[in-house]
Amino acid sequence: MSLVVVGSVAYDGVETPHGKIDRMLGGAATYISLAASYFTPVRIVAVVGDDFAQEDVDLLASRQIDLSGMERVPGGKTFFWAGVYSADMNDRTTLRTDLNVFADFNPKLPESYRTEPYLLLGNIQPELQKMVRAQMPGVKLTGGDTMNYWINDFRAQLLETLKEWNFLLINDSEARLLSGEYNLRRAAARIMEMGPHTLVIKRGEYGAILFRRGGHFIAPGYLLEDVFDPTGAGDCFAGGFIGYLAGRGVTPNDGDIDASDLRRAVIYGSVMGSFCCEKFGVDRFRSLTREEIEARYQEFQDCTAF
Amino acid sequence: MSLVVVGSVAYDGVETPHGKIDRMLGGAATYISLAASYFTPVRIVAVVGDDFAQEDVDLLASRQIDLSGMERVPGGKTFFWAGVYSADMNDRTTLRTDLNVFADFNPKLPESYRTEPYLLLGNIQPELQKMVRAQMPGVKLTGGDTMNYWINDFRAQLLETLKEWNFLLINDSEARLLSGEYNLRRAAARIMEMGPHTLVIKRGEYGAILFRRGGHFIAPGYLLEDVFDPTGAGDCFAGGFIGYLAGRGVTPNDGDIDASDLRRAVIYGSVMGSFCCEKFGVDRFRSLTREEIEARYQEFQDCTAF
């Protein structure tokens, strides 16, 4: 039972107070897949150009990620994004966005993907997310991400798409924008009327809140000694969250998932997001082990229990 | 065994998105004392003018707070502060500060206070904090608060004062300013070299972190449905924190306090801060009961355990 991940595979140029890298592997689907791969088999749906490097293929393959759904466009160039972070790394400015082959992304799932039970829709056009969902009629657990641009300018499409999701993972400002409510408890109540029975609000360094109709779970962020590059941390959170649920074989029954599994999934999401920040781009995943993940999960428990 | 609380007793004018009150009881020592009074007997040290209203005396007295150390200056006026909050209530602008009798505050402890074991020094001039500490030679547990102004302009005095404290309670920006370190783990390590063996960093709606030499405890903030007025929330946190420790009879032995007591003290601090925000000024304390406090503590546990 595998997890299907849809989204961008990209090259990023990133500058933080700790350094600058002109071009490195990035993209939401990349981060989600790498993080999830520690918990469950992953199958990726994406598009790249023929400039996509063999070493990057090799990294994904080394984590047993199925790349048969990663389309390679001959003569095309891979999506490129560049940005620079503020001194406290809580803000970033986009310097460049070249959509390249991603502009015509029209995700088609290989036959082998279509019967998988888990689907994570990275932040792409809501109609594309809906099209992918439609290709997996037997999917058991569907969730995804979105962003301000889709909430503002593609609202009707997004609301149609959300109806079919079991969970939504967004940050606090997106939750406020989507719901029209500033208070997060009220924002969550509104959003859960849109379809998803579970809402995870990511708060960056301050952790995350899991909302369900019956109540909420709130977790602080892991306190890092050094944050080198926060790029991809939110996607790694999503990958850890859905990856853990998929690895456990969790399926919602009439919208009901075991609450303790969901709570653990939030902590694994935080753990994966925290590792992501420790090195530039995906570098931390070149050496990260499942043992390190378990140790940090335990540390989380030790630092929060009372 | 009582807690001695030193700091401002004031009148505040406050405007939040939920309303505006021209003049109401406020001041750090007021909030600290009210919050702490649910856990331990409190004795206040402060100064007011003869405009200080009987109904405000009555409120403090109704919580069994000893007012014999509250000096009343004939012909003087009570400290007045006015401010307005931003729409998200995370920022506030001071509109007016009339120090009045507080400008000459020279705290002298009644004889009956001087043998008490617990001391909480609200945010006042560091030399005054030191003078108060010197009047309690047998004190067992001393802690307090400070602010950017003292850190920047009275640094040497503050460092002298801090040497004698067991714990310091400040917010994240103050911790960064005091330590010269942006990262909170590193900031805490620096600050714990200044004297206090325990540092509590308050993060407003995002909760708090307790640092000790052996490790840290991190708690998210309680998720309120409505925040009417955050004025005094940080002081109520301090009052709940020290009040709980005093009520438990905790005394540090060679700098060692039971870690689980400290963790519970942080949660009680958060609980008291959260109640404070539910109504304007001190209004929530007119009806708050110990049963409501225990229920919220339990809710905190339910919302954070995994």
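qc> Chain B has one domain: 3-304.
qc> done
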